[in-house]
């Protein structure tokens, strides 16, 4: 089980604001990465996210991604 978290990044101090979370039931991190990037553009959220991260079942961040390599 992975949690995919979408967030905005404030330019002035790089603070993160979470926009949404989605559970993804898979044992493979690569599957979670593919699903996360797919949802990045298609998931209906209150604002457009700047980046995403994937959290494993232990609550550890295992993947961070943003389009165009934006600093996260």
List the helices and strands and how they pair.
Layout: E1 2-9, E2 16-24, H1 29-42, E3 51-55, E4 61-65
Antiparallel strand pairs: 1-2, 1-3, 3-4
Written overview of the protein:
- By secondary structure, the chain is α+β, with helices and mostly antiparallel strands.
- It has one domain.
- The chain is built from one helix and four strands; from the N terminus they run ββαββ.
- The protein has one helix spanning 29-42, and strands spanning 2-9, 16-24, 51-55, 61-65.
- The chain has a four-stranded antiparallel β-sheet with strand order 2-1-3-4, covered by helices on one side.
- A hairpin with a 6-residue loop joins β1 (2-9) and β2 (16-24).
- The radius of gyration is 12 Å and the shape is globular.
- The mean pLDDT is 90.
Estimate what percentage of residues fall within beta strands. Answer: 35-45%
Low-confidence stretches: none
Going by helix content, strand content and strand pairing, the class is alpha+beta
Roughly how many Å apart are the termini?
Answer: 23 Å
| Count of DSSP-assigned helices | 1
What is the overall pLDDT average? Answer: 90
Question: Would you list the SSEs in sequence order as H and E?
Answer: EEHEE
Strand line-up across the major sheet: 2-1-3-4
Residue share in helices? 10-25%
Rg estimate, integer Å: 12 Å
| Main beta sheet strand tally, sense and closure | 4 strands, antiparallel
Shape: globular
Question: Could you give a quick summary of the protein structure above?
Answer:
This protein is of the alpha+beta class. It has 1 helix and 4 strands.
């Amino acid at each position: 089980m992975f949690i995919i978290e979408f967030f905005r990044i404030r330019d002035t101090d790089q603070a993160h604001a979470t926009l949404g979370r989605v559970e993804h039931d898979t044992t493979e991190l690569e599957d979670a990465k593919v699903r996360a990037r797919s949802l990045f553009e298609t998931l209906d959220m209150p604002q457009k996210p700047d980046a995403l991260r994937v959290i494993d079942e232990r609550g550890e961040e295992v993947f961070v991604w943003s389009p165009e390599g934006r600093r996260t």
